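User: Can you fold this complex?
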Amino acid sequence: MRGLSFYVNDELYMVDVTLVQKVARNMATTPIPAAPGAVVGIANIKGKIVTVLSLAVLLGRAQSSLVRATKLVSAVVLKPFAENDDQMGLLIDKPGDLITVDEKNILPPPAVMGAEAESCISGITEAEGKLYRIIDTNAIMNRFKDKKITNEQEGNSK
Amino acid sequence: MMNVDTGLFLDDFEAEARGHIGEIEAAFLDVATLALDHKRIDSIFRNAHSLKGTAGFFALDKIVAVAHALESVFSRIKDGNLIVNEKIADIALQSVDCLKDLVDHMGADEEIDTKPLLDTLQEYTNQTQPAELPGSPIPSSLLISGEIKKSLQNAARRGRKAYYVHVAENAKEMIENITSIGTIVGAVVNGNTDKPLYEAADIISALAGHKTPVLELYVACPLEPGLFAMAIGIDQKHVQLLAKETYSNDLSKAKTEPIYQKATTRKNDFSIRLDVSAINGLLDLANEMILTRNQLLSVVADHKKSIVGLTPILHDMNRLTSEIQEKVMRTRMQPISVIFEKFPRIIRDTAKSLRKDIEIEIFGEDVMLDKYLLDSLTDPITQLVKNAADHGLESPKRRGALGKHKNGKITLNAHLHDGSAIIEVRDDGAGIDMEALKRISLERGLVTEEALLAMPPSDVFALVFEPGISTAKRVTSISGRGVGMDIVKSNIEKLGGSIEIDSALDKGTTVRLKMPLTLSVIRTLIITIDSIAYAVPESNVERIVRIWRATPSRRLETVNNSLVLTLNGQFYPVVTMEEIEAKARGLEPPPIEVLLERARGQDVIKCLVLKAENKDFALLIDNAIETVETLVKPLPLYLQPCLCYSNVTVLGNGNAVTILDAEGILRLMGIETVEAIKMSAPTNETRTNTEGEKQVILFQCSGAEYFALEAGEIARLEVICPQSIQTIGNSHFVNIADETIRVVRPEDYAPVQKQDYTAEKLYILTLKKSASPIGMLAGKVLDKVQQAFVLDHDRVCGDFISGTSVLNEKILIFLNAAAIMNEVEKDKKRKQTVKKRGKAV
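Assistant: Here's the predicted assembly.
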């Protein structure tokens, strides 16, 4: 598996590169006040709407902080999923490298990561002495689809 | 000669007809290889049916006749009474050519002779068994393998005869026999026409792979048919001598005489049909171009002066890109009148042919819909109107017997509702016979009897959409085969819409289409709140109210712990984005005082008054930027938990923004009606912040004087029109919500001039604590003010005045409500006494 790595809060994450459409830098993103806390905002890429999500909030690493005013963010923009056209972008601090991982070396996520993290991370792996968390993008989409993420819940967990 | 106007709708028909013909042709080309399935036959049948239907309305009789004949033949094929063979495919293709020519020469088709073609098609309709049995070995493969044809032609030139040999057994031996007396020019193994073989060795090796190979051979041999069969040792029935025409190149000349001779001239095409995705792609690119333009503008902004001539170029580019975006956007939108305006003419012609008198009414023609939607809706709506005219409306005789107006009426209505376009086709005809519908559905085995019993009427009517269901007793050239409604339904659902039928026997039928607007462009007002831009559909926007600090008639206040906008005596509930956000995320809402203070801290407070579900409410905004037409895009999955957004869109600057859903905000916030606020607002006067502060309502009557009443004395505020005041004797009354309120005029109780009102709207301030309902009549309600007033009792005197005070340099006359009430009661009693006395006398 070839993965695209990126940093969020100084932690390394990775997504399957075949799922990635592009890494967008300085993408004008409009915040959505009434949206679930994990939603950073929406952006337009060539006429397609991309919803930018915050991994840190999804994984329970950070509280959602609504940015007032449109701002420029960097995100890994994923290709549309098979079952719906909505495109997801993952907010990143900075992109990492393209790395090749042997499937054999992927371990299940450790239980200490917590339930929220577990549902979005399919596994962890080590390469060149660094630890990568592999993102399960489908699981993230499904959490929204199954209405597991609602505005209410997000609010209460704060 | 036809009587066809060359109009907009005829052009549309032409494009549409070409589409249908093209599809029929495509399907027939498959017939030629005999690779025919039921779907294909259905497709041909439906296309012929649709073509016939539309052509019928334009009195294009020849097209109708050919399409009808074609449809009839395929109706038989569909039922299994006729099996497709090459001959039928051939005639069908000629029919297609004929239809094409008829469309090319629309309005001038006298010279096109369709009779021989129609006669032939008629033959096929009447036959129980086709003349050419499909079993007869007409070599199908011949049609596609040009190589074989060529070889046969060459052989024929050298005096050889062409044979077709069908070999089912001993294939290898047969090949040897044949090669000894003639030449195998080609072979098809197991009907695999895609891979014809030419060399004996290849054939043998191909045969090796099959246990029971079926071999079709094309042989060139000088021998006569009888001798040939004998020589190769095969039954004569497996051998066929091929006529020269069969393998000559031109198919249309292959048959003895073409039934239909193609017309030579073709009309030029002036319009092209584009796939809608092409325009979508263009639109996305145009939007992207604008984004890039803006980036460029910001990058070069600092260098504008140093590069000579840059500014006008940038200016031009600015304009051009915006124009391109707008043009592309425009190309997709058209008013629904494009569909609707065809119908008056269509109805007139249909009415003539059906011998009915039909009126048509059209509403909502200006509803703008996406071109793609409009295109796709033309057929279904036409079919629905046809149904209404043909089956819905009764004959004039029957209508007369039922006591209805002799003219039947068909109503087309389009409007926008809840983010969908609703299109209704209504007739005041016979309605759907529910019992007949149930019976037919049972006969066809579509439903069980138990299921029918449990079905609500709407579901029973929905059975009309099942294929093959028609309660019409006859088949006409307009409709009645029962194919219409299922096509309509499948087309509507393909577009993401829904369809429902409502009908009452002898009253009429309404078919309602609900189409999504996700493809369409709407006018929106772009606003900003906390520097975030939003789009608000213009249909929801009532007005924008600016409140300056110095305007007493416009005010932002708190009532019952919520913000209320007071505007010329009207009250509007106010929401802020902060409250919406808090509510949506399940957080504590910010304290109302904070919101109020913050709003009042601004020089100008801007309120956007929105209307949804007949309720008005105001949203606090920073700025209203502009009104633009935006392409509505569906709300992403990730935002779907949010009630307050309906869609998303991309602005001219390339930013993605949400479209606010006024109904959703109303539901999310549980906003009370304006009436409820009105009721509750004055009762809240008990809140006294500072000693001596009073809440008073300021109003004017017919004169220029300012009156004041303590809010605590007023039960509610009503708006009435002057005509609703009834005069009985010297007293005036008005009926509000089943209550008769005695109207008093403050002018009668104060030393002021009384004039007649000319305004169209008056106000009634109903008093609390009165024995019988009493309301003060006011011309204008100005404001509600809370402050401590020092009353002056000397300037203006009277029994019904508690004093005067000054506010903003204006003198206010404070009315004494209790005294006025007493006087009214006394007056009433006096009159009653008079009455009693009168009776006694």
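The interface with chain A takes residues 283-285, 287-288, 291, 530-533, 577, 580-581, 583-587, 633, 636-645, 648, 650, 654-658, 668 of chain B (CB under 8 Å). Chain B is about 40% helix and 25% strand.
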